[in-house]
Input
Amino acid sequence: MRHSTIYKSLLIILIAILTHRAEAQERKKAMHMLETPKTLEEVKKYALGEWESISIELRPTEDRTGSGNIMPTYLRRNFKYSEGDKFVGTITLFGDNYGQIPLMEFEFKGNLKWGEEHPIADGAWKIDYILNEGFGVTPLSDQAAAMLNQALPPGISAFEVNVKQDILQKAFPMFNIEEGQIVSDYDLIYFKNGMLFMGAKHVDGTPFDKVENRPHQLQIPLARKY
Output
């Protein structure tokens, strides 16, 4: 009888400890969602971790064929920020509104270069993504592989479905990349209510490939992946 009483008491204590930890974790998460880091050091620290799209996103994109037309692009984003100003960004393209037809995936790896404050919001900062460690391209459909394989430049092997190929510093005219070029993306970053905002894409599809093309507004946010 005495052993049974001790066992029940220990069980109650254990449940109380686990409940307290769970509640503390939920409180910590709730507080994290309300934070809006302002200084550069606060923003850099807050960014650490993994962030992902809330749902399928729509953005305007320049037609890669050079027609001048603006194409709708459906995608998901995933960004990981780590110590030492490192990042890995993954963008998955789809052929439909709801992400049921995967087309292509890009993986960008490299360094972050932090700039001055961005005027769009208090706590927003200019940031450059320097793709100097990896530029992976993976076709996710036969159609995407066929498109990538049109007029392949020297040094680029034929693309295969679901096989990633790194084109870092290789000439790739379809993406307007020259041999030896380090691709950079001139963007902004801002956090509010636990969400990560990057720059809104220009309505004419112009990429952020030049300092003067840095965005001025906020894009649909990313959510922290817990």
Summary: Strands lie at 49-53, 57-62, 70-82, 86-94, 102-117, 125-139, 165-166, 183-192, 195-197, 222-224. The two ends are 44 Å apart (CA to CA). The chain has three helices and ten strands.
